[in-house]
């Protein structure tokens, strides 16, 4: 990372220990804090800084306001041999998602597929950590969630749909796995929050201000709307996320999910997870060989002018993960100060930097 900004680095190990201590100080059970911290730091290590440890201050603000239950543990209800529902009980979305994917994987191991709907949850950060949980068990997966209003539907001008990511994955053989994690907007809303936090500008095509005009001011963008990628296509994907995550689960939908930065009421987020056994139709060895062949075909494609390398989906984040495991996670001073302020509130130790 060489953009002229001054960064202080922290190891993944120290960052996770710090986040765990802050969470426990806010009433989270130790075993739950370990899950939440691991998921957040996975995002930082993959370079998805918008969904990493910098989410701790707004999460803790919701805990203090009583609209996110730090002590909650999700509960599971098996509906059929391959279908289950998790009630998040207004606790951390990471916990509901972790339990939901674990159940989906168990069902898929026995029956080939497992589907889990999750209600009464909260923001669960980077969707790719759930994809990775399935990959670690040798499974393919689909991961959907809805989120608070940020996008207009195509042809509209007011916030209605969330910047709700669609994610999926499939294991590879000798080559990297396939991991897709993308929002239906031109950019993730977390990137605008990060730009505001760091005093940076944003590209003009990311968002509109409250008057419907393009803006490079992140504060003005947050008062306006995000723009969907591909116009009506991105808008339709956002609606699809609401159907599968909100309507189906019984959670909030149609613009009624609460913003994770709004400490006034519970978020009531819904999620939808599927785990699939990759050797349902062909042998596992054949599947992995075919995935490796697909990888090779993708990365060795003829390059357009000015392109030095073609990456498989998820590969750039994997490379960033390797680099940050080695060199540490970069943070600016304001981010460290905000995190240390949270630690001070509960008597936890300040962030240990490299």
From TrEMBL:
Coiled coil: none annotated. It comes from the Eukaryota. GO terms for molecular function: oxidoreductase activity. The keyword Oxidoreductase applies. Keywords: Oxidoreductase. Pfam families: Ldh_2. Gene3D superfamilies: 1.10.1530.10, Hypothetical oxidoreductase yiak, domain 2 (3.30.1370.60). Belongs to the LDH2/MDH2 oxidoreductase family. This is Malate/L-lactate dehydrogenase.
């Amino acid at each position: 990372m060489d953009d002229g900004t001054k960064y202080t680095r922290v190891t993944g190990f120290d960052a996770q220990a710090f986040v765990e201590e802050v969470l426990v100080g806010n009433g989270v059970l130790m075993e739950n804090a370990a899950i939440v911290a691991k998921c957040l730091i996975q995002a930082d290590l993959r370079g998805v800084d918008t969904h990493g440890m910098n989410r701790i201050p707004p999460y803790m603000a919701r805990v203090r306001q009583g609209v996110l239950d730090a002590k909650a543990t999700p509960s599971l209800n098996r509906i059929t041999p391959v279908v289950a529902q998790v009630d998040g009980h207004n606790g951390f979305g990471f916990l509901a998602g972790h339990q939901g994917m674990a159940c989906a994987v168990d069902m898929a191991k026995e029956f080939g597929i497992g589907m889990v709907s999750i209600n009464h949850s909260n923001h669960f950060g980077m969707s790719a950590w759930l994809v990775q949980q399935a990959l670690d068990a040798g499974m393919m997966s689909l991961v959907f969630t809805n989120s608070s209003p940020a996008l207009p539907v195509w042809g509209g001008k007011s916030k209605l749909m969330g910047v709700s990511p669609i994610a999926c994955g499939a294991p590879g053989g000798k080559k990297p796995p396939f991991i897709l994690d993308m929002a239906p907007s031109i950019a993730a809303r977390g990137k605008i929050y990060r730009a505001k936090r760091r005093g940076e500008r944003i590209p003009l095509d990311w968002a509109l201000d409250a008057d419907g005009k393009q803006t490079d001011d992140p504060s003005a963008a947050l008062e306006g709307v995000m723009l969907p990628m591909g116009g009506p296509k991105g808008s339709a994907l956002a609606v699809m996320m609401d159907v599968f995550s909100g309507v189906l689960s019984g959670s909030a939908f149609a613009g009624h999910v609460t913003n994770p930065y709004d400490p006034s009421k519970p978020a009531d987020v819904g999620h939808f997870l599927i785990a699939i056994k990759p050797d349902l139709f062909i042998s596992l060895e054949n599947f992995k060989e075919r995935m490796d062949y697909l990888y090779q075909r993708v990365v060795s494609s003829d390059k357009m002018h000015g392109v030095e390398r073609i990456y498989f989906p998820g590969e750039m984040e994997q490379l960033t993960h390797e680099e940050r495991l080695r060199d540490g996670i970069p943070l600016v001073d304001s981010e460290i100060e905000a995190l240390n302020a949270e630690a001070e509130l509960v008597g936890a130790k300040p962030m240990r930097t490299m």
